[in-house]
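Support case: SN-glycerol-3-phosphate complex. Customer-provided input:
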Amino acid sequence: MKFFIDTGEVSEIRQAHAMGLVDGVTTNPSLIAKSGRPYKEVVVEICDIVNGPISAEVLSTTYDEMMVEARVWHKLHPNVVVKLPLIPDGLRATRTCTNEGIRTNVTLCFSPTQALLAAKAGASYISPFIGRLDDCSETGMELIDKIVRIYKNYGYATEVLVASVRNPTHVVDAALIGAHVCTIPYSVMLQLAKHPLTDVGLKKFVEDAQKIPR
Ligand code: G3P
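Agent response - structure generated as follows:
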């Protein structure tokens, strides 16, 4: 399973990248707003650090406006993947982008039918938001299971990009299901590395190292 980092903070990307954990990056308007920096400036900087797909989202919601933004993002860097919302205009923009050779990530997916439509539109990635489904007392991971099965049944090339990941269990379950990509906040990446027995074991090794004759 590929690991993308889900953030607008370049410092987090640098740290995760230094550990070899970053196959790609996803951003969205909320994450970039949190960074307090212009969207384009952040994406340019990310493209200098990571040689992989970098999702940059359109900020408009009509087909014509989305296509203007999509073409601008596409021209910025070959690694930029245009993120489009799962609404009818977004699907139309996805189809046009696909026809023009622009890679897309269709976002805000909450149902198998939406995922099917994104695949038919030729999306490179579909982003189901599992944490937000969990927030509504649904099981987000069941959606991942259904989409992976549907795509396999028909051989769709669209990759399932598990998004709105909130904890290590989400990552493990996504990998067990066979999702192509998990986009993970930096804080959760750090949680993935953590185990109390590792800390206890290392403390003992460090103590015992002092007893080794030199
Ligand atoms: O990748 C989508 C993600 O940024 C949304 O996460 O935690 O706001 O639902 P969250």
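Strands lie at 2-6, 24-26, 54-57, 80-85, 104-109, 125-128, 159-162, 181-184.

Case will auto-close in a few days if no follow-up is received.
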